[in-house]
Design goal:
The chain has about 900 residues and is α/β, with parallel strands linked by helices. The protein is built from 28 helices and 29 strands. The strands form ten sheets. Strands 6-5-14-16 form a four-stranded antiparallel sheet. It binds one RNA strand of 77 nucleotides through strand 8, strand 12, helix 8, helix 11 and helix 18.
RNA sequence: GGACGAAUAGCUCAGCUGGUUAGAGCACUUGAUUUACAUUCAAGGGGUCGAAGGUUCAAAUCCUUCUUCGUCCACCA
């Protein structure tokens, strides 16, 4: 069979991703004979296009899922997308604005129609891209957070929590995005340090000439909504002013000086302006002191009628204007530069406004309790474990969750208000909370009901993902199979996500799991690093530093993308395009090694069972490579089990490239006619495909298909079985010795600048029969690997003039070089070597002479050191003799 | 302000429970190639393991302090 000299991933990738899906290999079902292993995908936004973060996240999941599938688990990888309320609405609003319209121009129904159209047209984009990556999801189950069934779960959860008293409505200061014109949760407001100013404003004291209290603020425009000035009751400077009346400049409102412990006397002037409607702390103070709440702003950030002359100005415009006017009135004392953290909308990056409005909230403390316990007691484990503390710290200080959003794309809040038809009584003011559309008001019977305008936070649906994707709460009683599936696969096994998602999603899923399923949603949480550019900046479209994974797939192949990402994924990844060469080169190496074997080996050799072969019939390199394979297999499995994916790949890389290709395949080059050699080569290759498949599914499936046709698809093969008996310690040790000998000869070759045209011979001088036998048995291999013309093995120290020498273990290589050798140079080299060994020996002997060491160190350490010392002594002796022979 | 992490070759990092002469990839130098692969092979140079103390027979590894970076959280107006 002919293979091209390059791995043409372009011809291969699509073929297999189609093949896997068409053959339904990834469809999971209840199988009592198998253990379940389920992972739910972090649902990407429907607006999403695959970026490096997705590529990393999904490759990790795919490795684990493919690995577990091969290990005999019934694996389910549940895919789907998230409706991403604000993000999606923003996308469609941008389309609208190209037509010169806003969502309010077209109205809610038309806007929703457009949103669904958009979803139908583009919503599968990222799903298709995940298929290109090789993700082995159960695609039949692909869910969307706004599927009808899923939406039922969301409404049901709202009603349940409301009935439990865990959902309430109230007027509070929330994070408001004036551009999106919606409330945001605390997590959705991203704090960034901004260079701003601290403005010192003077508020005149009523009835006193030229007397002021100076307050400091970063947002001077909010002074228009001030309803008090607060000082610390212990602050001696201000004691006399407490309860005095001030005149609020520009709006001429009379406000009181109040005393509140919250005020930090050391900051600013020690006196704080209090704006209860525009600042969370002031809001609390306002409640404590029963102050008036003056809202000076429209939802779009433009000042309203309460702002007097400033009405109609944007908040930042007003800031300038207020300062200018106060300055003219000589009421601006000074301006100091001041850096402080300012919240930004996580979707559009507009500066968030603390804004007073009526919203729905979830009471989190009761939900957090079991979720905290589960992690504290280790029922849920984080990998790496350091994230445990981050999680616990947040959960211990959890605050209520604002879940209403003033947008249209999402799950509409299942609350209705009785508008009444004349006969309405007081009771009808109670909202009607119902999972289904109520027909009439339960109090007055009126059918004139109006649903709450708001929708729910996107995360209020995604926190149900691990069970709502199965069809929970199964209101359709006939849906028995789905119930069984949930019972079988829940709790799921592992969750793979990025650190910034811990609060948004992971913590909330754990809470929902306990609240609605009475159990953890998953037992392991693997937190992977962030993908950054070579300079360490986050990859982002706006920075223009993003590398498109699809471009890498086109140019280097999906396996190259996957392999390169994972081998760099120990912590945060610093990625540039060249980083993907390692994966491309490795996939190509796998391809070419297979090509070599295919060119020499007939397919009948494929039935060779590595695990059952009689080792005694094999040559040393074959025994060695089989043992190396099993050592690697065991370590790779252990690494994946511990979520150490980059380590697993390094092991594979080292084994396949440095051991199998560079040594084994090289040693057998002239021995394809031997009985066992082709079988071992093919056997190791086939088993390597299995071991490598979770990491590089495409190239391995392609090669498996070429080499092992008839055994079925590689992706559903069993993981090679391991047992200690398959290891061959002796072969490993012997082969290491011979590799050292070969390397030593090669070094001498390079050092003496011996080109390939020149043939040299080597004499090995050994002390033990065992070494002699080892060399004799492998002379051909050594000759080939070290490119030697002739080799002899002797047991006496030959006195050879003009010879380069090298010592490996107990074996001395003597290479007569005739005229090429510069005796002085060689002498110096040997002397240097001897000096170094001597130093090592002295250090060792000092340690061995230390009674404490001999007494306290573990016996095997002492034994090892003694052995080493003996070997070093022999070596030093040898080197001295070599020098003598050069005299 | 709090919490957590990192510092090892020019660069990116591994080094897990203290125990051979601290490793890998990239980059660099030199050489090889009618041979499966130049997306290759071989050989080499390059390290006071951030600093200072301490514990120990033994420290890159454990402890303390410091320095420098990073991440997350937080209402200092």
């Amino acid at each position: 069979m002919e293979l091209s000299p390059r791995f043409n991933f372009n011809e291969v990738d699509e073929k297999w991703s189609k093949f896997w899906v068409e053959n339904n290999f990834f469809h999971a079902h209840v199988d009592p004979a198998k253990k379940p292993y389920a992972v739910v995908i972090p649902p990407p936004n429907v607006t999403g296009i695959l970026h490096m973060g997705h590529a990393l996240n999904n490759t990790l999941q795919d490795i684990m899922i493919r690995y577990k599938r091969m290990r005999g688990f019934e694996t389910l990888w549940m895919p789907g997308t998230d409706h991403a309320g604000i993000a999606t609405q923003n996308v469609v609003e941008r389309q609208l604005s190209k037509e010169g319209k806003t969502r309010h121009d077209v109205g809610r129904d038309e806007m929703l129609r457009r949103l669904w159209d958009w979803k139908k047209q583009y919503g599968d984009t990222i799903i298709n891209q995940l298929k290109k990556l090789g993700a082995s999801c159960d695609w039949e189950r692909t869910r969307f957070t706004m599927d009808e069934e899923y939406s039922k779960a969301v409404r049901s959860v709202f009603v349940r929590l409301y009935e439990k008293g865990l959902i309430y409505q109230g007027e509070y200061i929330i994070n408001w995005c004036p551009r999106c014109q919606t409330a945001l949760s605390d997590e959705e407001a991203e704090h960034r340090d901004l260079q701003g100013n601290l403005y010192y404003l003077r508020y005149p004291i009523k009835g006193e000439e030229n007397a002021f209290i100076t307050v400091a603020t970063t947002r001077p425009e909010t002074m228009l909504g001030d309803t008090a000035v607060a000082v610390n009751p212990k602050d001696k400077r201000y004691k006399k002013y407490i309860d005095k009346t001030l005149t609020l400049p520009l709006v001429d409102r009379e406000i009181k000086v109040i005393a509140d412990e919250f005020v930090d006397s050391k900051f600013g002037t020690g006196a704080v302006k209090v704006t209860p409607a525009h600042d969370p702390n002031d809001f609390a103070m306002g409640k404590r002191h029963k102050l008036e709440f003056v809202n000076i702003m429209h939802p779009n950030g433009v000042l309203n009628e309460r702002a007097g002359d400033f009405e109609g100005m944007d908040r930042f415009e007003a800031r300038e204007a207020v300062i200018e006017e106060l300055s003219e009135l000589k009421l601006l004392e000074k301006i100091e530069p001041h850096t402080h953290a300012v919240g930004h909308c996580y979707r559009c990056h507009t500066v968030v406004e603390p804004y007073l409005s009526k919203q729905w909230f979830v009471r989190m403390e009761p939900l957090a309790k079991p979720a905290l316990e589960a992690v504290r007691k280790g029922k849920i484990k984080f990998y790496p474990s350091l994230w445990t503390k981050v999680y616990l710290n947040w959960m211990e200080n959890i605050r209520d969750w604002c879940i209403s959003r003033q947008i249209w794309w999402g799950h509409r809040i299942p609350v209705w208000y009785c508008v009444g038809d004349g006969q309405c009584k007081l009771a009808c003011k109670e909202p009607i909370v119902s999972a289904t559309v109520p027909e009439k008001c339960p109090h007055c019977g009126s059918g004139n009901l109006k649903q709450d305008e708001d929708v729910l936070d996107t995360w209020f649906s995604s926190w149900l993902w691990p069970f709502a994707t199965f069809g929970w709460p199964f209101e359709d009683k006939a849906n028995k199979p789905a119930r069984e599936e949930l019972a079988y696969f829940y709790p799921t096994a592992s969750l793979f996500t990025a650190p910034e998602i811990i609060f948004f999603w992971v913590a909330r899923m754990i809470m929902a799991g306990f609240e609605f399923m009475g159990d953890i949603p998953f037992s392991d949480v693997y937190i992977h690093g962030t993908v950054r550019d070579a300079k360490g900046r986050k990859m982002s479209k706006s920075l223009g530093n993003a590398i498109d994974p699809l471009e890498i797939i086109r140019e280097y192949g999906a396996d190259a993308l996957r392999f390169s990402l994972i081998i760099n994924s120990g912590q945060d990844l610093f990625i540039s395009k060249e980083k993907f060469e390692i994966g491309r080169n490795f996939a190509n190496k796998v391809w070419n090694a297979s090509r070599l074997i295919l060119m020499r080996v007939s397919h009948s050799s494929a039935d060779f069972d590595l695990a059952k072969v009689d080792r005694r019939a094999l040559d040393l390199p074959s025994r060695w490579i089989i043992s190396r394979f099993y050592v690697t297999l065991e370590k790779v499995g252990a690494a994946v089990d511990r979520y150490r994916f980059s380590e697993a790949e390094s092991l594979i890389y080292e084994f396949f490239w440095s051991n199998f290709c560079d040594w084994y395949l090289e040693t057998i080059k002239d021995r394809w006619a031997d009985e066992n050699v082709p079988k071992v080569a093919l056997g190791v290759l086939e088993n390597s495909f299995k071991m490598m498949h979770p990491f590089m599914p495409f190239v391995t499936e392609e090669l498996w298909d070429k080499i092992s046709k008839g055994k079925g698809a590689l992706c559903i093969q069993g993981w090679p079985a391991f047992s200690r008996k398959l290891l061959d310690k002796e072969a490993e040790k012997d082969m290491e010795a011979l590799r050292g000998v070969v390397s030593a000869v090669r070094t001498v070759r390079t050092q003496w600048n011996i080109t390939s045209g020149q043939t040299i011979s080597c004499c090995f001088i050994v002390r033990t029969r065992k070494d002699a036998a080892l060399l004799e048995a492998n002379l051909v291999m050594i000759k080939n690997m070290a490119r030697l013309e002739s080799v002899t093995v002797g047991q006496t120290l030959a006195k050879v003039k003009n010879a380069a020498t090298a010592l490996v273990g107990g074996i001395k290589c003597v290479i007569p070089l005739g005229g090429v050798i510069d005796v002085d140079k060689e002498k110096k080299r040997i002397l240097d070597q001897a000096g170094e060994q001597q130093r090592l020996l002295e250090g060792l002997e000092k340690r061995l002479g230390n009674k404490e060491f001999v007494k306290k160190a573990p016996a095997e350490v002492v034994a090892k050191e003694k052995e080493r010392s003996a070997a070093l002594q022999a070596k030093v002796r040898e080197l001295k003799q070599v020098i003598a022979s050069l005299e």
